[in-house]
Amino acid sequence: MKRDRVRRILSYYGSKIKLAPNYPQPKFDKIVEPFAGGAGYSCFHWYKKVELYDISHEVISAWDYLIKNRDQIPFLPVDFNHLDELVIPIGAKNLIGFNLNAASASICKIKSVWGRNNNSFWSRYLRKRIYEDSEKVKHWKSHCCRFDEIKTDEPATWFIDPPYQKNGFCYKFGSVGFDYNKLRSWIENLKGQIIVCGNNYDTWFEFDNEIGSKNQKKQDNIEMFSEIIK
Ligand SMILES: C[S@@+](CC[C@H](N)C(=O)[O-])C[C@H]1O[C@@H](n2cnc3c(N)ncnc32)[C@H](O)[C@@H]1O
Q: In this structure, is residue 10 part of a structural domain?
Protein backbone atom coordinates (compact mmCIF):
# COMPACT_ATOMS: atom_id res chain seq x y z
CA MET A 1 0.00 0.00 0.00
CA LYS A 2 1.37 3.45 -0.93
CA ARG A 3 1.19 5.91 1.95
CA ASP A 4 1.96 9.61 1.60
CA ARG A 5 4.80 10.61 3.86
CA VAL A 6 4.46 13.17 6.63
CA ARG A 7 6.29 16.22 5.32
CA ARG A 8 8.74 18.23 7.41
CA ILE A 9 7.19 19.25 10.76
CA LEU A 10 10.25 20.86 12.40
CA SER A 11 12.88 22.54 10.22
CA TYR A 12 15.75 20.94 12.09
CA TYR A 13 19.53 20.98 11.63
CA GLY A 14 20.71 17.45 10.71
CA SER A 15 17.17 16.29 9.92
CA LYS A 16 16.90 13.01 8.04
CA ILE A 17 13.63 14.02 6.37
CA LYS A 18 15.08 13.97 2.84
CA LEU A 19 17.35 10.97 3.35
CA ALA A 20 14.70 8.85 5.13
CA PRO A 21 13.77 6.70 2.08
CA ASN A 22 17.45 5.67 1.72
CA TYR A 23 17.74 3.97 5.13
CA PRO A 24 16.58 0.35 5.64
CA GLN A 25 12.83 -0.15 5.94
CA PRO A 26 11.63 -0.71 9.53
CA LYS A 27 11.28 -4.43 10.32
CA PHE A 28 9.34 -3.94 13.60
CA ASP A 29 5.94 -2.43 14.41
CA LYS A 30 7.55 0.03 16.78
CA ILE A 31 10.10 2.71 15.81
CA VAL A 32 12.06 4.36 18.62
CA GLU A 33 14.06 7.54 17.97
CA PRO A 34 16.20 8.27 21.07
CA PHE A 35 17.58 11.45 19.39
CA ALA A 36 14.33 12.64 17.85
CA GLY A 37 15.02 16.20 16.67
CA GLY A 38 12.81 16.64 13.59
CA ALA A 39 12.19 12.84 13.47
CA GLY A 40 12.75 12.57 9.72
CA TYR A 41 12.83 8.74 9.66
CA SER A 42 9.59 8.42 11.63
CA CYS A 43 7.87 11.03 9.43
CA PHE A 44 8.52 8.74 6.47
CA HIS A 45 7.22 5.66 8.36
CA TRP A 46 4.56 7.56 10.33
CA TYR A 47 1.99 4.71 10.37
CA LYS A 48 4.22 2.65 12.76
CA LYS A 49 4.02 2.89 16.57
CA VAL A 50 6.46 5.77 16.97
CA GLU A 51 8.19 6.76 20.22
CA LEU A 52 10.25 9.95 20.16
CA TYR A 53 12.77 10.86 22.85
CA ASP A 54 15.08 13.86 23.08
CA ILE A 55 16.91 15.58 25.89
CA SER A 56 15.79 18.96 24.52
CA HIS A 57 12.60 20.33 26.06
CA GLU A 58 12.26 22.70 23.08
CA VAL A 59 12.07 19.74 20.73
CA ILE A 60 9.79 17.50 22.79
CA SER A 61 7.36 20.25 23.81
CA ALA A 62 6.89 21.07 20.11
CA TRP A 63 6.13 17.39 19.32
CA ASP A 64 3.86 17.08 22.39
CA TYR A 65 1.87 20.09 21.27
CA LEU A 66 1.50 18.73 17.76
CA ILE A 67 0.44 15.28 18.98
CA LYS A 68 -1.94 16.35 21.77
CA ASN A 69 -3.26 19.74 20.65
CA ARG A 70 -3.60 19.38 16.90
CA ASP A 71 -7.10 20.90 16.94
CA GLN A 72 -5.50 24.20 18.10
CA ILE A 73 -3.02 24.44 15.21
CA PRO A 74 -5.38 26.30 12.79
CA PHE A 75 -5.69 29.10 15.39
CA LEU A 76 -1.96 29.68 15.92
CA PRO A 77 -0.85 33.21 14.99
CA VAL A 78 1.14 33.82 11.81
CA ASP A 79 1.41 37.65 11.86
CA PHE A 80 3.76 38.78 14.62
CA ASN A 81 7.16 40.44 14.95
CA HIS A 82 8.74 38.46 17.77
CA LEU A 83 7.92 35.05 19.24
CA ASP A 84 8.09 36.46 22.79
CA GLU A 85 5.07 38.69 22.13
CA LEU A 86 2.79 35.64 21.69
CA VAL A 87 0.65 34.44 24.58
CA ILE A 88 0.35 30.80 23.61
CA PRO A 89 1.54 27.51 25.19
CA ILE A 90 5.31 26.93 25.18
CA GLY A 91 4.99 23.87 22.91
CA ALA A 92 3.14 25.98 20.32
CA LYS A 93 5.86 28.66 20.53
CA ASN A 94 8.53 26.05 19.98
CA LEU A 95 6.65 24.49 17.05
CA ILE A 96 6.52 27.92 15.43
CA GLY A 97 10.10 28.78 16.49
CA PHE A 98 11.52 25.73 14.73
CA ASN A 99 9.77 26.85 11.54
CA LEU A 100 10.89 30.47 11.36
CA ASN A 101 14.18 29.68 9.71
CA ALA A 102 15.83 26.90 7.69
CA ALA A 103 17.35 23.87 9.45
CA SER A 104 17.55 25.40 12.95
CA ALA A 105 19.45 23.75 15.79
CA SER A 106 17.38 25.73 18.30
CA ILE A 107 14.23 27.85 18.12
CA CYS A 108 14.29 31.23 16.35
CA LYS A 109 12.33 34.22 17.61
CA ILE A 110 11.92 36.29 14.44
CA LYS A 111 11.37 35.35 10.82
CA SER A 112 14.43 35.65 8.61
CA VAL A 113 14.01 38.23 5.80
CA TRP A 114 14.03 35.33 3.37
CA GLY A 115 11.49 33.39 5.47
CA ARG A 116 9.00 36.29 5.40
CA ASN A 117 8.10 35.63 1.78
CA ASN A 118 8.58 31.93 1.72
CA ASN A 119 5.70 29.51 2.32
CA SER A 120 7.97 26.75 3.53
CA PHE A 121 8.53 28.79 6.72
CA TRP A 122 5.85 29.66 9.30
CA SER A 123 2.95 31.05 7.27
CA ARG A 124 -0.74 30.39 6.66
CA TYR A 125 0.27 27.81 4.09
CA LEU A 126 2.68 25.95 6.40
CA ARG A 127 0.23 26.07 9.32
CA LYS A 128 -2.46 24.40 7.16
CA ARG A 129 0.01 21.83 5.86
CA ILE A 130 1.27 20.93 9.35
CA TYR A 131 -2.32 20.69 10.60
CA GLU A 132 -3.18 18.27 7.79
CA ASP A 133 -0.10 16.11 8.43
CA SER A 134 -0.58 16.12 12.22
CA GLU A 135 -3.60 13.82 11.73
CA LYS A 136 -1.13 11.07 10.82
CA VAL A 137 1.04 11.40 13.94
CA LYS A 138 -1.65 11.62 16.61
CA HIS A 139 -0.88 8.05 17.78
CA TRP A 140 2.84 8.91 18.38
CA LYS A 141 4.35 9.26 21.87
CA SER A 142 7.04 11.77 22.85
CA HIS A 143 9.18 12.04 26.00
CA CYS A 144 11.86 14.44 27.17
CA CYS A 145 14.81 12.45 28.56
CA ARG A 146 18.39 11.31 27.93
CA PHE A 147 18.92 8.30 25.69
CA ASP A 148 20.22 6.18 28.61
CA GLU A 149 16.96 6.69 30.54
CA ILE A 150 14.86 4.94 27.86
CA LYS A 151 13.53 1.43 28.59
CA THR A 152 15.31 -0.95 26.25
CA ASP A 153 13.84 -4.38 27.03
CA GLU A 154 11.49 -4.70 24.00
CA PRO A 155 12.69 -5.32 20.46
CA ALA A 156 11.98 -2.45 18.05
CA THR A 157 13.40 -0.59 15.10
CA TRP A 158 15.82 1.80 16.81
CA PHE A 159 16.83 4.82 14.72
CA ILE A 160 19.91 6.19 16.46
CA ASP A 161 20.93 9.61 15.16
CA PRO A 162 23.07 11.43 17.77
CA PRO A 163 24.77 14.80 17.18
CA TYR A 164 27.67 14.45 14.71
CA GLN A 165 30.97 14.29 16.58
CA LYS A 166 32.57 17.05 14.49
CA ASN A 167 29.67 19.21 13.29
CA GLY A 168 27.14 18.57 16.04
CA PHE A 169 28.22 21.30 18.48
CA CYS A 170 25.52 23.79 17.47
CA TYR A 171 22.59 22.08 19.24
CA LYS A 172 21.70 23.14 22.76
CA PHE A 173 22.59 19.52 23.62
CA GLY A 174 25.25 18.71 21.07
CA SER A 175 28.55 16.90 20.67
CA VAL A 176 30.44 18.93 23.29
CA GLY A 177 30.57 16.75 26.40
CA PHE A 178 28.51 14.00 24.75
CA ASP A 179 29.66 10.54 25.90
CA TYR A 180 29.95 8.57 22.62
CA ASN A 181 31.55 5.57 24.43
CA LYS A 182 28.51 5.33 26.68
CA LEU A 183 26.24 5.45 23.62
CA ARG A 184 28.21 2.64 21.92
CA SER A 185 27.83 0.40 25.01
CA TRP A 186 24.13 1.29 25.29
CA ILE A 187 23.56 0.31 21.66
CA GLU A 188 25.09 -3.13 22.37
CA ASN A 189 22.19 -3.88 24.74
CA LEU A 190 19.39 -2.99 22.30
CA LYS A 191 17.27 -5.71 20.70
CA GLY A 192 15.66 -5.75 17.26
CA GLN A 193 16.78 -3.68 14.28
CA ILE A 194 19.26 -0.97 15.11
CA ILE A 195 20.07 1.70 12.52
CA VAL A 196 22.99 3.86 13.65
CA CYS A 197 23.67 7.13 11.83
CA GLY A 198 26.68 9.38 11.55
CA ASN A 199 28.96 10.87 8.96
CA ASN A 200 32.42 10.25 7.52
CA TYR A 201 34.08 12.35 10.26
CA ASP A 202 32.61 10.30 13.11
CA THR A 203 35.13 8.00 14.78
CA TRP A 204 32.96 6.66 17.64
CA PHE A 205 31.34 3.93 15.50
CA GLU A 206 32.40 1.91 12.49
CA PHE A 207 29.83 2.67 9.83
CA ASP A 208 29.63 0.37 6.83
CA ASN A 209 27.23 2.12 4.46
CA GLU A 210 27.15 5.47 2.71
CA ILE A 211 23.75 6.95 2.01
CA GLY A 212 23.26 6.89 -1.72
CA SER A 213 21.87 10.31 -2.54
CA LYS A 214 23.28 12.00 -5.67
CA ASN A 215 23.55 15.44 -4.03
CA GLN A 216 25.47 14.20 -1.07
CA LYS A 217 28.25 12.66 -3.18
CA LYS A 218 29.27 16.20 -4.15
CA GLN A 219 29.55 17.25 -0.51
CA ASP A 220 32.43 16.97 1.90
CA ASN A 221 30.25 15.44 4.65
CA ILE A 222 29.03 11.99 3.69
CA GLU A 223 26.10 10.55 5.62
CA MET A 224 26.84 7.03 6.86
CA PHE A 225 24.90 4.32 8.67
CA SER A 226 25.09 0.74 9.93
CA GLU A 227 22.22 -1.69 10.39
CA ILE A 228 22.42 -4.33 13.10
CA ILE A 229 19.78 -7.02 13.55
CA LYS A 230 19.78 -9.11 16.75
C1 LIG B 1 21.20 14.87 14.75
S2 LIG B 1 19.90 15.46 15.78
C3 LIG B 1 18.61 14.32 15.35
C4 LIG B 1 18.01 14.64 14.00
C5 LIG B 1 16.80 13.80 13.68
N6 LIG B 1 17.14 12.43 13.37
C7 LIG B 1 15.98 14.40 12.55
O8 LIG B 1 15.63 13.70 11.58
O9 LIG B 1 15.67 15.59 12.64
C10 LIG B 1 20.42 14.93 17.37
C11 LIG B 1 19.45 15.19 18.55
O12 LIG B 1 20.01 14.56 19.73
C13 LIG B 1 19.54 15.28 20.86
N14 LIG B 1 20.41 14.90 22.00
C15 LIG B 1 21.66 15.30 22.29
N16 LIG B 1 22.12 14.69 23.39
C17 LIG B 1 21.15 13.83 23.80
C18 LIG B 1 21.05 12.87 24.86
N19 LIG B 1 22.05 12.65 25.74
N20 LIG B 1 19.92 12.13 24.96
C21 LIG B 1 18.88 12.33 24.09
N22 LIG B 1 18.91 13.25 23.07
C23 LIG B 1 20.04 13.96 22.92
C24 LIG B 1 19.65 16.74 20.43
O25 LIG B 1 18.81 17.56 21.23
C26 LIG B 1 19.22 16.64 18.94
O27 LIG B 1 17.85 16.94 18.82
A: no
